[in-house]
Amino acid sequence: MRNSKERPRVTVLGLGYIGLPTASLLATRGFSVHGVDVNPEVVDTINQGAIHIVEPDLDVLVRSAVQSGQLRAGTEPEPADVFILAVPTPFTEDREPDLGFVEAASRAMARVLAPENLVILESTSPVGTTERVAHWIAEERPELGGGAVHVAHCPERVLPGQIIKELVDNDRVVGGLNDAATEAAAAFYREFVSGEVLTTTARTAEMAKLTENTFRDVNIALANELSVICERLDIDVWRLIELANRHPRVNVLQPGPGVGGHCIAVDPWFVVASAPEQSRLIRTARAVNDDKPDQVVAQVAAQARRLREPVIACLGLAYKADVDDLRESPALRITETLARQGAGEILAVEPHIQELPETLARHDIRLVGLTEAMEQADLVVPLVPHRPFRNIPASQLQRKMVVDACGLLRLLP
Ligand code: SAJ
Questions:
Q1: What pLDDT, on a 0 to 100 scale, did the predictor assign at position 6?
Q2: Among 149, 174, 200, which residue terminates a domain?
Q3: Ligand 1 geometric centre to CA of 136 (Å)
Q4: Residue 345 belongs to a domain with what CATH number?
Q5: Is residue 246 part of a domain?
Q6: In a domain, 40, yes or no
Q7: What distance in angstroms lies between residue 217's CA and the mean position of ligand 1's atoms?
Q8: What is the gyration radius of the CA atoms in the chain, in angstroms?
Q9: Is any atom of ligand 1 closer than 6 Å to the C-beta of 158?
Q10: Nearest C-alpha to atom 3 of ligand 1 is from which residue?
Q11: Which atom of ligand 1 is found nearest the CA of 264?
Q12: CB neighbours of 131 closer than 8 A, spacing ≥ 6?
């Protein structure tokens, strides 16, 4: 085991949900880490030992990393032995991958690279992106082309809400542009990952990550389609899935109000964009999941029409249970659409936020506590099964009309 002085210096580009936990974990394991973000406010916050995102235990980790002097943040890359790219890879309006952040970070990093450095792309990326990173480096620094720096892909695969644990415990897939890059990257991860580090090519590693999230998306689409079929056939879909899953080889996922977040609803498009003709099932699954919020809106509106002056409580706005993240949230979209359509007076309950986001604030929606919502609403719409909602007495809900979009009823005491 090397002592801390011999650990490589690491520069992490992008201090968001992946980069910041990775940088601070490495710092607390004795690596000397320089974190880079284009946003000076993010940099200042981190240098004060604080955080700009919400993730369990991340505040403690960052504070200790910064206080120990092993983690510093800045807006420009500095020379290091290992460079980790953890910048966003969103998609464009045409659902084409937008590699602008990866390109900008690659070119900025190229200025401080030296021969034998290891460059690892962790951002979820369409197949061929790792090759493009090497190409951008060579454009900036022609003398570093042809394998002078080791370039590899090691996709992040941590679950928001459990990032710190999964960063260490999960198996990792590492694929370099050549064997030397693969080996160098695998050796780096083996220093702090307790899961197995599996090696392959860069293209396979890229596709492995896309496959993981596509697997989830396609299987959630099956659950969501079943929920719509069951609504029509007057069958309780939650009980149905519970029963079907008692078969030893069946594991249907859970239906919900739609698929949110910036991973599962995005990454399948990277596959579709690479092979449009061949990706029929994947494209259809995306359409099924994207359509689910509208199905929920239609169900709620139909119930609301039975009431004279409906007061509708939407329980949960986040993209999934027990997180504060409202980005790409189907619950948010449903709540907003109900208000826009004038379905009734809308009460929103979201224990993780203090004020409504702009998209909701411009409508006449009130952010209220759970107790107030349960007192005032005639129609209750559980959208996200946050922990506090799971304690609502079933008897209280039985007195209301309910459109249960997330299966909360079966979780009640
Ligand atoms: N959802 C359902 N039904 C289910 C499971 C999830 O409707 O049975 C919905 C959730 O409510 C949410 C969305 O899907 O709206 C995604 O939630 P999630 O918890 O399944 O996943 P994410 O987006 O938070 O994180 C995923 C993870 N990928 C996989 O589990 C294959 C994580 O490991 C990845 O690192 C992350 O994407 C990422 O960054 O790509």
A1: 73
A2: 200
A3: 31
A4: 3.40.50.720
A5: no
A6: yes
A7: 8
A8: 23
A9: yes
A10: 254
A11: 23
A12: 177, 202, 203
